[in-house]
Write a structure and sequence with these properties.
The protein has about 400 residues and is mostly helical. It has one domain. Helices cover about 55% and strands about 5% of the residues. The chain contains 17 helices and four strands. Strands 1-2 form a two-stranded antiparallel ribbon. The protein has a two-stranded antiparallel ribbon with strand order 3-4. A hairpin with a 2-residue loop joins strand 1 and strand 2. Helix 6 runs antiparallel to helix 7, helix 12 packs antiparallel against helix 13 and helix 13 packs antiparallel against helix 16. It starts with a helix and ends with a helix. The relative contact order is 0.12.
Length: about 400
């Protein structure tokens, strides 16, 4: 055997031995979401905490028959912030904040910077729902809801207030914000390479150059802002999972709900672990690991939205009265369908793990909503089991779960 052949065989053996070894992670995730520079925290997401607070007050106001349409719209727009005449929020800090819900709704770099027409339409959807709550639902407070007539309807010990199609507009706004605000900003903006690596962000992060007047690099801060939309009002933002599901009415709440289903147990840890490791990767200047974690977060957050869309459609179907002519017994089903409506709307903002594509196109989501509300002239009053199952199957087909798993 020649010397050359022996040399080549030795190289093959070396490479084979390397392949058999377990790769050593280049980044180690911390036990908590705590990151410091020179003994001081580098984590900051106050703007996200404020917007969650604004969302909480808005959805609460949409159930307050004493509130005005001007106040509700101002909670969404906050256009007279920082000393303006209107003070719609109970939290005085929100009244002086420069932040707003509207400015960040359907406003991600990756999905809407070049899609301003749709972004405007989405913002108008929210304003239409808010206006309709005041002009259609509130005046019908003491009217019994029937097909084609807005009003109140019993749901056990609760009373629901629906429009003429059976839709609870406060639920539509609440659940749609999960995708259009929190999800779009986290998945399609702050975790996107276009934002993380914008301008000289990577060079500055490599050099440890902090943003002007701050203790964090710009890249660190962008990642933290995504984190804030999920954990910004947690009892302990550094270790949020012990209270996951109890800290807001948006993404945090429904991560907790999905985590509570045995079929999806572990998803809360998957999301938080990816946030921690991705942030540690930024500190370590390992952008491959960073982007791998961003992909995990997108997949898991998108799964939460999809699971709850299917869940509420199936729960609503199961709650429909045996006698479809007994209009007094639709309250529970309508509540579920209204939550499902919002989660379906939020599907538009989901993001596949790799690439820049949503799980569902605008036309697909529009089609789901049209089907849900279009089995008859009275919307949810006329929806059929077949339609609910068809939408559910179409959603589940894009993910690694079944309708039975999500709907139980």
């Amino acid at each position: 055997m020649t010397t050359r052949i022996l040399y080549l065989l030795a190289l093959v053996a070396i490479f084979a031995a390397c392949d058999d070894e377990d790769p050593t992670p280049s980044v180690e995730a911390p036990a908590t979401y705590v990151f410091e520079r020179n003994g001081a925290t580098t984590v900051s997401f106050s703007g996200q905490t404020q917007r969650i607070g604004m969302g909480e007050e808005l959805i609460s106001a949409m159930k307050d028959f004493g509130v005005t349409d001007v106040a509700m719209l101002e909670m969404f727009r906050n256009q007279t912030a920082a000393g303006g005449d209107a003070n719609p929020f109970d939290d005085s800090d929100l009244n002086t904040s420069s932040k707003s819900i509207k400015s960040k709704t359907a406003a991600s770099r990756d999905f809407f910077s070049a899609n301003t027409v749709e972004a405007t339409e989405i913002k108008e959807d929210f304003e239409t729902w808010i206006n309709s709550q005041f002009t259609v639902v509130f005046p019908s407070q003491n009217t019994i809801a029937t097909p084609g007539v807005a009003g109140q309807i019993a749901d056990g010990s609760s009373t629901r207030y629906v429009n003429e199609q059976g839709l609870e507009l406060n639920q539509a706004v609440n659940k749609s914000l999960i995708g259009a605000l929190m999800g779009d900003q986290a998945m399609n903006h702050y975790l996107g390479v276009a934002v993380l690596d914008e301008a000289d962000n990577r060079a500055n992060n490599d050099a440890g150059t902090t943003a002007s007047g701050e203790n964090y690099t710009t890249m660190e801060h962008k990642w933290d802002e995504a984190y804030g939309y999920i954990y910004g009002t947690s009892a302990d933002p550094a270790n949020p999972n012990p209270t996951i599901g109890a800290d807001d009415s948006f993404f945090n709440k429904y991560i907790g709900r999905v985590e509570g289903d045995d079929d999806f147990a572990g998803i809360a840890a998957d999301i938080w672990d990816a946030f921690k490791l991705g942030r540690a990767a930024i500190v370590a200047k390992d952008y491959i690991v960073r982007d791998e974690q961003a992909a995990i977060i997108r997949e898991k957050l998108s799964t939460v939205i999809a699971v709850r869309a299917v869940y509420y459609l199936q729960q609503g179907k199961n709650g429909l009265p045996a006698d479809r002519n007994d209009t007094a017994l639709y309250g529970g089903a309508f509540h579920d369908f209204s939550e499902g409506f919002g989660f379906i709307y939020s599907l538009r903002f989901t993001r596949q793990a790799s690439g820049d594509q949503p799980y569902f196109t605008k036309s697909e989501v529009d089609g789901f909503l049209e089907d849900l509300m279009g089995d008859g002239q009275n919307g949810l009053w006329d929806v059929t089991d077949a339609t609910l199952d068809a939408i559910s199957e179409a959603i589940a087909a894009k993910f690694d779960f079944t309708v039975e798993q999500a709907g139980s």
